[in-house]
Every structure is written in structure tokens, then in C-alpha cells.
């Protein structure tokens, strides 16, 4: 497995004085996801939890609906491949028709670390094809404001590189259930959701998803497919994220900093 970080030589400049030094940088490499041996997508990601990332990505792309659709997720063992086999995972599906449909609907593309939806053919196909969430679960303002610090405490690679996003899955009382770091926010979410799916814990109807950085459309969409009723972030949501959260019954909060935050949709799930 490729490391998530690497040492690099740098020149540090302080008050015009240059000093040779060594720094730690986050690794970004391509992960090719194959369906039943055929190329499906290439994701720019931070190595680590690749099986979980692939599972979460396929859930978000609506290729699979649950762990029951998955056969095996294995690293490529093709000795004739010119690519690094540690950067290729092959996913076998229980129903071969799922792979056929997914491959027919998707154009081959590279998904960069800031975009989770580049492979769709049309904007219309991004529309969520699931029912709005009806969860009556609630949390409190105190729990919500505690999440940035609790997630930050789990960001070990960020401490060394300063270059990673994080996603954390929390219980309604603020307990950290799972977390992941990646160069892409949406990749971190896929890793967390994929890990819960592989142990058959979906839907996550009693959970809070908290992400570093901003909340974009694809983050809310991934939460929707995983059944997560509350999504929050350190920074701002986009207008499309707010629209999707409103339409699909998701509580969306942003700018969670200190004792303050904004609630954009469905505020009834966050008690004073």
C-alpha cells in the first residue's frame, strides 16, 4: 500500500532568509476502479482505505444500493498491467447487469480531488432518485459545536502535512464513530460511508456527517444515499447543496466555529 504522506525537500523563507529543510506532503495518486474487470472511473485520492472508497463511490454513483450488491473488492493482480496495481481495484458485482448498466451510462473520465460527479453524461442524471429522508432524530447545539474539535483530534496525517480534508461520522450525542482523511472532501466521505456499508450498517439514520471545508452538492447527495439526516461543516454550503438538502429532508448546518453556526435547512433536528 502506498503511503499517505512523503518527505520532500523545501526551501523555507523567513524574512528573506532561505533555509534548506525537509517537509511532509500529502500523497495524491490515481485510483482506477474497475467493474467486473472493465475500467469504470479514475479517482484522484490519497492512498488508504481504497476498498472503502470504492464501495462508497459506487453507492454515491448509484451503481449499488447496499453491501448485498457487492461481490469482492480486490487490488488488481494482472501482472501484464503497466500501471501500479496498488492503484487499481476491481469490484465484482453480484448482479452482472448492474455493471453493464453503469458502464453504459457513464463516460470514462478522471475524477479529480475536488469533484465527485464528473462522470455523469447529463446534468439531469445527477437528480437524486431516492425518497426524502423522514428521520425524526435530533441533536443539540452543544453537540454540533463540539464536532470540529473532535474531528480535528482524529486528523493525524493533517497534523504532519496540513494538506488533507476530513470527514467524520458522529452519533447524535457527539461520539466519533468513524473518520477518514483524503485530499478530496468527497473521497473522505466515500471512505467513511463505504466502511459502514461493508459492515452492513446502512442506512445511517442516527448519525451526523461532519466535514472539514465547505459542503457542496455531492457531499449532501452522498449523505442522502447513506441515509444521514444531519450534515454540517466548518465552512459554507453551496446554493445547490442547500437546495438539495431542503428538497430531500436533510438538516444542513455550516460555519460551525466556536459556539456559532448557521442552520440552512430543516432546523427542527437541532435543539437549542
What does this 3D model show about the protein?
This protein is of the alpha/beta class and 272 residues long. It has two domains: 29-126, Ubiquitin-like (UB roll) (Roll); 139-271, Cytidine Deaminase, domain 2 (3-Layer(aba) Sandwich). It has helices at residues 50-60, 96-105, 141-152, 156-161, 185-198, 217-226, 239-247; strands at residues 5-14, 17-26, 29-35, 38-45, 70-75, 88-93, 110-111, 139-140, 165-171, 176-182, 207-211, 230-233, 251-257, 260-265, 270-271. The strands form four sheets. A six-stranded mixed beta sheet has the order 10-9-11-12-13-14, with helices on both faces. A five-stranded mixed beta sheet has the order 5-6-3-4-7. Helix 6 (217-226) links the parallel strand 11 (207-211) and strand 12. The radius of gyration is 19 Å and the shape is flat. Mean pLDDT is 85; it is low at 118-128.
Provide keyphrases for this structure.
272 residues; alpha/beta; Ubiquitin-like (UB roll); Cytidine Deaminase, domain 2; 2 domains; 6-stranded mixed sheet; 5-stranded mixed sheet
Residue-averaged pLDDT, rounded?
85
N-to-C series of helices and strands:
EEEEHEEHEEHHEEHEHEHEEE
Q: Report the β-strand fraction as a percent range.
A: 25-35%
Q: Which regions contain 5 or more consecutive residues with pLDDT less than 50?
A: 118-128
Structural class per helix/strand content?
alpha/beta
The quaternary organization reads as single chain
The first-to-last residue Cα distance is: 45 Å
Q: What's the tally of helices?
A: 7
The domain tally reads: 2
The share of residues in helices is: 25-40%
What name is given to the CATH topology of the largest domain?
Cytidine Deaminase, domain 2
Provide the CATH superfamily of the largest domain: Cytidine Deaminase, domain 2
CATH architecture descriptor name of the largest domain: 3-Layer(aba) Sandwich
Radius of gyration: 19 Å
Task: Name the overall outline.
Answer: flat
Please tally the β strands and state the result: 15
Class of the largest domain in CATH?
A: Alpha Beta
User: The biggest beta sheet, please?
Assistant: 6 strands, mixed
The main sheet orders its strands as 10-9-11-12-13-14
Amino acid at each position: 500500500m502506498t503511503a499517505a504522506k512523503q518527505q520532500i525537500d523545501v526551501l523555507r523563507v523567513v524574512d528573506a532568509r532561505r533555509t534548506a529543510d525537509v517537509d511532509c506532503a500529502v500523497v495524491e495518486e490515481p485510483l482506477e476502479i474497475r467493474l467486473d474487470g472493465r475500467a469504470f472511473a479514475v479517482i484522484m485520492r490519497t492512498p488508504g482505505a481504497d476498498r472503502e472508497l470504492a464501495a462508497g463511490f459506487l453507492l454515491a454513483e448509484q451503481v449499488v444500493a447496499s453491501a448485498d450488491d457487492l461481490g469482492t473488492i480486490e487490488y488488481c493482480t494482472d501482472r501484464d498491467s503497466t500501471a501500479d496495481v496498488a492503484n487499481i481495484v476491481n469490484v465484482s458485482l453480484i448482479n452482472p447487469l448492474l455493471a453493464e448498466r453503469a458502464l453504459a451510462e457513464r463516460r470514462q473520465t478522471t475524477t479529480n480531488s475536488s469533484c465527485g460527479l464528473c462522470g455523469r453524461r447529463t446534468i439531469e442524471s445527477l437528480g437524486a432518485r431516492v425518497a426524502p429522508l423522514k428521520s425524526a432524530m435530533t441533536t443539540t447545539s452543544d453537540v454540533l459545536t463540539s464536532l470540529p474539535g473532535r474531528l480535528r483530534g482524529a486528523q493525524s496525517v493533517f497534523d504532519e502535512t496540513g494538506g488533507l480534508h476530513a470527514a467524520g461520522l458522529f452519533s447524535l450525542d457527539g461520539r466519533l464513530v468513524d473518520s477518514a482523511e483524503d485530499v478530496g472532501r468527497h473521497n473522505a466521505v466515500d471512505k467513511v460511508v463505504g466502511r459502514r456499508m461493508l459492515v452492513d450498517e446502512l442506512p445511517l439514520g442516527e448519525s451526523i456527517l461532519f466535514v472539514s471545508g465547505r459542503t457542496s452538492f455531492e457531499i449532501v447527495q452522498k449523505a442522502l444515499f447513506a441515509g444521514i439526516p444531519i450534515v454540517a461543516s466548518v465552512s459554507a454550503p453551496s446554493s445547490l447543496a442547500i437546495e438539495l438538502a431542503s428538497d430531500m429532508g436533510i438538516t444542513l448546518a455550516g460555519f460551525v466555529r466556536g459556539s456559532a453556526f448557521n442552520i440552512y435547512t430543516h432546523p427542527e433536528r437541532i435543539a437549542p
